Amino acid sequence: MHCPFCRHSDSRVVDSRTSDDGATIRRRRQCPNCSRRFSTSETASLSVLKRSGVSEPFSRAKVISGVRKACQGRPVSDDELAMLAQRVEENIRSSGLAEIDAHQVGLSILQPLQELDVVAYLRFASVYQDFNSLVDFEAAIARLRSEGLEGAQAGDTSPA
């Protein structure tokens, strides 16, 4: 780690702390050359492998963007979308993989989205589970009904 003040090529760690969510480590460093202190933030990288073969960093913003389309016109807040994206990232990171297929990211969105809003879930699932006909929708709706979720929606606390 280069010192941001004198550009010395080394520094020593004085203190380390993990963030509240445990995904980031904040390190306090000191330069042996100029003795000035500075902070760094470290996160474990998580890459998404796209169909084209390109790898890019995981982005909560992309998760939110994709889910927001499915939630269009539904009573889902931006805070709920942010929590969903955080939950998806935590689930992916807990797998221990440094790189995950983009399709797997989409599939990992399904359960939290189902719990958030079933209509948005059906919209999203129709893409990621390749619904090709009304029969596919009917089967998904029948499964949701058997789980007692047909009336569930964002903010709905009444029994289904």
Along the chain, the helix and strand elements come as EEEEEHHEHHH
Radius of gyration, taken over Cα atoms and rounded to an integer in Å: 21 Å
Tell me the distance between the termini.
55 Å
The assembly state of the depicted protein chains is single chain
Shape: elongated
What is the strand content? Answer: 15-25%
Spatial arrangement of strands, main beta sheet: 1-2-3
**Number of separate helices:** 5
| Average of the residue pLDDT scores | 87
Count of distinct strands: 6
Largest sheet: 3 strands, antiparallel
- Alpha-beta classification: alpha+beta
Provide a concise account of the structure shown.
This protein has 160 residues and is an alpha+beta fold.
Question: What this model shows, in words?
Answer:
There is one protein chain. By secondary structure, this protein is an alpha+beta fold. Helix content is 42%, strand content 19%. The chain contains 5 helices and 6 strands. Strands 1-2-3 form a 3-stranded antiparallel beta sheet, with no helix packed on it. A hairpin with a 5-residue loop joins strand 4 and strand 5. Helix 1 packs across helix 2 (78-94), helix 2 crosses helix 3 and helix 3 (102-116) packs antiparallel against helix 4 (118-128). The chain is elongated and about 70 Å long. The N and C termini lie far apart (55 Å).
